[in-house]
Every structure is written in structure tokens, then in C-alpha cells.
Specification:
about 300 residues, 13 strands, alpha/beta, binds 1-O-phosphono-alpha-D-glucopyranose, two-stranded antiparallel ribbon, single chain, Spore Coat Polysaccharide Biosynthesis Protein SpsA, Chain A, five-stranded mixed barrel
């Protein structure tokens, strides 16, 4: 029987040390790209893919994420009384009526694989999506996860979103080697977490978008500590390859590595250039900047 993807897991329990001091008291996923937190872009991508249950794997000091997806009564009342209809809509759209939000605490930061395993009681025996909010994907259309869900509906197997990266950067990613294919997706033969460039099987990197069958949970249950001493999702997927096909899919769109300061800045500049209120003024500012002696 074909099963639909209705749930997405958002691992948001990481410490965000690369963005300290900004992330001392708030989650890195709450950092805004222009005017919207990273986690909201990720949730909107899931909603666009037809997903209606958002499962956050959180930790202490991530309360801002829980609050962000809750109704803000006082603020709504205030905006209503001041007739600020546009702002009110903007607030209400964060929590669409047909979408549920589930929060699970990951007591210890044991790694991405462990975070996904924490979602097992909510996911049960269904295929599901995993979205890492610090990889932001903009495709100007339906969104990366919608592309992957469409592919899942045809293939009914696990799918990882991948892109070609600079071969010097393999040690920052899960890297796959695929069988030859004439399609945009190809069967994964090998997957390895954060290999050094000299031993990497390719430069095709997994970038924070997964559709996984529930078979991953039994694999995760038995996955020991891997790269960086953490329980790695990549290692469980490597184990899954022995039992069922897993596809790598080169999605359409631009991925911004918002887990790095440079990638985060680039995302802000490019999203500002797409922003209806800002694009005119911001692009004229950039043009002046290029002409100035600051660059
Ligand atoms: C995680 C995954 C890695 C993946 C990456 C994408 O690593 O473990 O396989 O390629 O996300 O951003 P992290 O960046 O959390 O260290």
C-alpha cells in the first residue's frame, strides 16, 4: 500500500556554537534570514510539500521555537485593536489551522541519528521527512521537500536531497556514491559521514533533506557512535542500504549553508534581493557599495 508523507522531523537541539554569542540564549534555528527565522522557512517548505505534522526535537533553552509556533494572544489582540490586519495575518499564518506541532525533548545531545530516533513514538510505522533548518533551500516555486515528496510517490523508497560541493569540503557532509543513472535521482551505493577529501567516494553531499522509511528506526536503535563521537543518521542509512534501495536526488533550487556565518550572510543578501519591500532599496544600496572604496 502506498503511504503518504504527512510528518516532518526538525532536529533543533544542537548547541549552535558556531553562532555564539548570538545563540547563547536562543536556538540557531531562530536566527532570522531578513525577517523570518530559519525554522519558519523550513516549516513552510514542509507545509508546501503537503506535510501537516511538524515534529521538533528540542532541548533546554529552545523555548523560543515552541513559543514561535504557538498562538500569541496578547500580540494578536493588540494588532486587532490597532487595525493592523497585514501584521495580524502574518502572525496567524505561522500557525495554519490544519497543521499540528509536536515537541519532543532530546535530553542529551548525542547526535543527529539519536535526534531522529527520538521521533519514533510520534512517527510510528510511516515514511517521514527530516529537514535540517540550517540548510535553507530556495527554488522560487514549490520547494525542495515538495519535489522529494513527488519523487517518493513514484518510487516509494528513502530519498536523500544531495548537491555537488567543492571537493575540499567533504569533511563537513555526509557523502554518497551513486550508481550510474540517466534520471535526476540515482541509487546510493555508498554513504559515509564527513570523509576527508582524500578518502571521499565523491563530492555529492547530503544537504539536510531526507525522506526515510520507518525501517530506519531499527537501524538507528543499533547504531553506535560514529564521526565526532555522535550517533550519526548517515551510519544508520549506510546500514539501511543493505536492506532496501535509498535514492540520492539532485533537487532544483539554491541551497544556503546557514550553519556557517558566510552562508548565512549570503542567504540574507539574496533573500533581501527577492523581498518585495526591500529589493529596490537594497539593490541600489549594493550598487553604491560596489562603487565605493569599502570593497
Ligand atoms: C549533518 C549530517 C550530514 C549532512 C549535513 C548537512 O551534519 O550529519 O551528513 O551532510 O548535516 O548539512 P552537521 O552539519 O549537522 O554536522
Amino acid at each position: 500500500m502506498t503511504k503518504k508523507i504527512t510528518k516532518a522531523v526538525f532536529p533543533v537541539a544542537g548547541l549552535g556554537t558556531r553562532f555564539l554569542p548570538a545563540t547563547k540564549a536562543i536556538a540557531k534555528e531562530m536566527l532570522p534570514v531578513v525577517d523570518k527565522p530559519l525554522i519558519q522557512y523550513a516549516v513552510e517548505e514542509a507545509v508546501a510539500a503537503g506535510i501537516d505534522t511538524m515534529v521538533f526535537i528540542t532541548s533546554r533553552s529552545k523555548n523560543a521555537i515552541t513559543d514561535h509556533f504557538d498562538k500569541a494572544y496578547e500580540l494578536e489582540k493588540e494588532l486587532e485593536s490597532k487595525n493592523k490586519a497585514d501584521l495580524l495575518k502574518l502572525l496567524k499564518d505561522i500557525v495554519p489551522p490544519n497543521v499540528s506541532y509536536v515537541f519532543i525533548r532530546q535530553a542529551e545531545a548525542l547526535g543527529l541519528g539519536h535526534a531522529v530516533y527520538c521521533a519514533r513514538p510520534v512517527i510510528g510505522d510511516e515514511p517521514f521527512a527530516v529537514i535540517l533548518a540550517d540548510d535553507m533551500v530556495e527554488d522560487g516555486e514549490r520547494g525542495c521537500m515538495a519535489q522529494m515528496v513527488e519523487l517518493y510517490e513514484q518510487k516509494q523508497t528513502s530519498i536523500l536531497g544531495v548537491e555537488r560541493i567543492n571537493p575540499a569540503d567533504t569533511a563537513s557532509y555526509g557523502i554518497v556514491k551513486t550508481a550510474a543513472s540517466s534520471e535526476k535521482s540515482a541509487r546510493i551505493e555508498v554513504i559515509v559521514e564527513k570523509p576527508k577529501p582524500e578518502v571521499a567516494p565523491s563530492n555529492l553531499a547530503v544537504v539536510g533533506r531526507y525522506i526515510l522509511t520507518p525501517a530506519i528506526f531499527d537501524k538507528l536503535k543499533n547504531t553506535g557512535r560514529g564521526a565526532g563521537g555522535e550517533i550519526q543518521l548517515t551510519d544508520a542509512i549506510a546500514d539501511l542500504l543493505n536492506d532496501e534501495p535509498v535514492l540520492a536526488y539532485e533537487f532544483e533550487g539554491t541551497r544556503y549553508d546557514c550553519g556557517s556565518k558566510l552562508g548565512f550572510l549570503i542567504a540574507n543578501v539574496e533573500m533581501a534581493l527577492l523581498h518585495s519591500e526591500l529589493k529596490a532599496d537594497f539593490s541600489s544600496y549594493l550598487k553604491d557599495l560596489i562603487k565605493s572604496d569599502k570593497l
